[in-house]
Amino acid sequence: KCTTGIQNTGTGGIDSDKIVTLWSYKNGQDAEIIAKFFDAVRKFDPDILVGFNSNGFDLRYVRDRCAINGINFNKYIARSMDTRDPVEFIEKKNLASGKKYVEVRIDGRVSYDLYYPTIRDQSMFGIKNRTMKTVAEWYKIKDVVKEDMSNVNRYLETESGRKQINRYLRSDVNITDQ
User: Fold this and answer.
1) Of 114, 133, 134, whose CA–CA distance to 124 is shortest?
2) What is the secondary structure of 76-106 as a DSSP string?
3) Do the strands 109-113 and 48-51 form a parallel or antiparallel pair, or are they unpaired?
4) Which end of the chain is more exposed for a tag (fewer CB within 10 A), N or C?
5) What pTM was computed for the model?
6) pLDDT score of 76
7) Cβ atoms 100, 93 nearer than 8 A
8) CA 64, CA 12: separation in Å to the nearest integer?
9) What Rg value do the Cα atoms of the chain yield, rounded?
10) 117-162, pLDDT tens digit by residue?
11) Shortest CA distance to 40 belongs to which of 4, 86, 94?
């Protein structure tokens, strides 16, 4: 989910045309999908990147895949390259709880990870866990799509499987927005 000023990108419910789904049909190669992602970042030019565990997983994963594919992650995710480290992943520890977390600093943007406030939310006493889907159900968010995504390749093999992945990911964007 991206926010530019007060305008949201990728919002409007699971069936919204404002949610952009990016696909690559080259098996075993992800440089194309990374390039499409960065094209979307360039197009929307978000002030704020919002995700659920995006600092702990998603942004690191994209950074690591960029390194493998010889793509300069910093050049595309940061607004400028004027600083020595335009993107920093800083390991931190909550002084009160002792739990570790990652702060991501991006030159010219804010990376806001919803996972950390969710973990600290004391109003969810009795919830079985703090995963995105469980939290969404706790807050009665509509269109929570659950799928076993442990073997994504089996979904990619068929058009109906790709539709399932698409609906699953659109659900994640909708949950993030809500």
Assistant:
1) 134
2) HHSS---SS-SEEEEEEE-TTT--EEEEEEE
3) parallel
4) C
5) 0.80
6) 93
7) yes
8) 31
9) 17
10) 888 888 888 899 989 999 999 999 999 999 888 888 888 888 999 8
11) 4
